[in-house]
User: Fold this.
Amino acid sequence: MDVLMLSRLQFAAATYFHFLFVPLTLGLSILVAVMETKYAWSGDETWLKMTKFWGKLFLINFAIGIVTGITLEFQFGTNWSRYSAFMGDIFGSLLAIEALGFFFLESILIGVWIFGWKKISRKAHAIVIWLVAFASTGSAVWIITANAWMQHPVGYVLRNGRAELADFAAVALNPFGILLLAHTLFSAYILSAFFVMGISAWHLLRKRHVDFFTRSFRIALVFGLIFSFAEIIEGHMHGADLAHTQPTKLAALETLWTTSANAPIYLFALPNSANDGNSVEIGKIPGVMSLLAYHRTDAIVKGLSDFPADERPPVLITFISFRIMVGLGVYFALMTLWGWLKRDRLLDSPGYLKAMIYSIPLPYIAAALGWTVTEVGRQPWIVYGLMKTRDAASSIAVSQVSVTLFGFIVVYGILGAMGFYLMYKNAKKGPIADG
Assistant:
């Protein structure tokens, strides 16, 4: 493999692994804040135990997420230096805001929350965890804003072969970024809800700490129910926006090769890996793609064949990832709706509880597939319409990237095993070990 492919694999490995921990940080921080707020206002010791139990899992996840995220930014200089030179004026300012503002704030507040239990009042302590959740979300806002600029560049001028910042407000309020942020946050909240519900279901099946885990399950259920349906609505809005911002990605999502009005979707299709339009398509539903993209069945949707071959994304990966992601999204909505109907008789629903245990990894898979659609579907562009990925990589030796890629896989594998083992061990113990 060449340097470009190895650099892609290295960044993908680091990003996918890091994102195993980010969503749980975003969502679980809010759930723990809600639990501690209930304790702060009621004085009910069960809410305190819940705060500490779920808070411990949050801290383990947070620590691994921090360690695995630091290396990502260094790769912009080591593996993607030409990309950094092209858009560093924009990308650098956004990452600086995230790191110097929200990441530092989050790290400081985490320390206050860990060591401040007996040093500040319980209401002040509850405010701290809300501030942690705010800082975590703030970090996500600026990282997603930076990614959104790569997806749909705005507020810039091209000068001396570089993209330079011309309108900060346009970059910060990029409509594509707002939709992408909502999609990312909602998926994180779904993941966190299923994490809490799955662990709670495990204990409820064994009738351990019934009141404790019934409360945990219900509070996560409400969280998951709201955002599972919100994600479906936002997903439609996001897809419609692609018709204007990334038409090649939209066509790849539905394997649309021929420009047409009344454009269809297919219940199943198997594009070939050659990206030449020869696909096996089953279950054609006319007009639906036009309706979803432009809200009119007679709207014309541009097909992949009308784009240059070297500007089409890999259709097979994009299409399959999108289909599975959507299927999982519908599953999450149905499972949380089912749970809402059973919320008062959870102990009498062992089948549902078992299903929730096995569902814990599914939001992780959906989140990874979502980023696959986002990033692979943008190809061959690293900055859509401005810079291709092949032009962004550093001029370094294959051996350098090979060694570091291997190192990332080994080190991250060890860190991941440690992190998930610690979460599994503490989740299985239950609240007693937490005191």
Q: What stands out?
A: The chain has a mean pLDDT of 87. The longest helix spans residues 210-245.
